[in-house]
Amino acid sequence: MLAAALLLAAAVAAGYGLGAIAILLIVGAIVTFLGQGSAMPILAPSPVRLPPSADRLPTATAASVPAERAALGVDALGDPALIVGGDFWVIAANAAARTLFGDRVVADDLRLVLRHPAVLDAVRVAAAAAAPVEREVTGLGTTNGAYRVRVATLGPDGGGERLLVTFVDITQARLTERMRVDFIANASHELRTPVTTLLGFIETLQGPAADDEPARHRFLEIMHREAARMSRLIDDLLSLSRIELDKHVRPQTALDVAPLIADVGRTLAMRLEADDRRLAIRVADGLPPVVADRDQVLQVLHNLVSNALKYGRSGTAITVDAEPVDAAGVAMVRVTVGDRGDGIAPEHLPRLTERFYRIDTSRSRSMGGTGLGLAIVKHIVERHRGAFDIVSVPGEGSHVSFTLPLASTEVTVKRV
Ligand code: ADP
User: Residue 358 CA: which ligand 1 atom is closest?
Assistant: First the structure.
């Protein structure tokens, strides 16, 4: 092929009788041959289309992996992906990688555009060993961005020279894992406190206070209170895990909300009376039935009225309003529990539905709180595709509301 090119160039030059032109044409033929590969027709006008960035690539890299061809490969991948030379030169990047690292990631040195030591080290090790390397890294894209980075050599001719670097986003998975670990730690801590108290009193009753009748009486009361707290906590933990299990199963029963509110009023009657409180229930006339899980709606109402009792002022009324509302074009029933009491400072509002988040932990504990009440409410309301909202004025009180979808908007509902 090279010989034919030389002959052709010499013949053309000789035809014009110009020695200098012959030399130029021969040099040009050699350059063309080396640059475009033996498959290209020599001296024929070649319509090779290079990507806009190709002119900035070092000759060797551009020649061994045409950027256009490499880009076609990575473009098929949904996760961010780069093709990198062993010299750290970025040959191609797909759309996801350009979004993550910026457009200038292509045709630049990876060490300059992505200054993450763990990623660069993975590329270095994979290139040296000509073997795949996988690392989990944080701080890519955003401070909390966590990615599983995989560097693979591309084909036998790569020999560690050309590498495919893919980035799988594991930020959410890491966050969920972190929340699970925190949750177990918090739950264990919450359970350990009453257990430690119980053990302490049991030891005291077995030893120094064995014959002290008044102390025994007092200690047993405390032990009963602590055991009840543990029992409530275990109930709430079990509730949460049951709700989580069912969270993708939509409730199917049509039911009226008014009797449920009255039911909760009866359950909490003694506590209301003990604190000189009263439940003021106002249900809109002809309130349509909702589609909901009866026990779960009872639990939501119970938790919200209990909170109004715990954090509202003694002697004040607790209001419960139920009315139809239009929620962004969808007809729903909204239930609002209002109290007059402490209220909640705005900075706490976004975190109140986190498990074990409490404004004043010792106050919550002394009132028998587990710190899980609003987390349970939030999960139940989400399962019902409803909305949860808190409006509160510190020092005045709070209005906590949730919405439930109407039974009439659901196609398959069972009437109870
Ligand atoms: P707890 O068992 O501690 O009451 P919740 O999840 O029900 O747990 O509530 C979380 C926190 O939100 C409470 O500890 C309390 O600080 C605050 N809170 C909830 N409801 C009210 C309310 N009606 N008024 C003032 N603060 C409230």
Answer: 14
Q: Is 91 in the pocket of ligand 1 (CB under 6 A)?
A: no
Beta-sheet strand order (sheet of 397-405): 278-283, 317-327, 330-340, 397-405, 388-393
80-119 burial by CB neighbour count: b if 16+ within 10 A, else e? bbbbbbbebbbbbbbebbeebbeeebbbbebeebbebeeb
Same domain? 163 vs 93: yes
Give me the domain span that covers residue 41: 1-52
Cα(321) to centroid(ligand 1), Å? 20
Q: What is the pLDDT of residues 190-230, one digit of tens each?
A: 999 999 999 999 999 999 888 999 999 999 999 999 999 99
Any domain includes 302: yes
Residue nearest to ligand 1 atom 4, measured at CA = 369
The rounded distance, in Å, linking the Cα atoms of 293 and 386 is 12
Does residue 342 have its Cβ closer than 6 Å to ligand 1? yes
In this prediction, residue 328 carries a pLDDT of 87
Instruction: Quote the tokens at residue 36.
Output: 């475009």
Task: Report the nearest-CA residue for atom 11 of ligand 1.
Answer: 358
Q: What is the pTM of this model?
A: 0.71
Rounded CA separation 340/39 (Å):
85
200 within some domain: yes
The band of 6, judged by pLDDT with boundaries at 50, 70 and 90, is very low
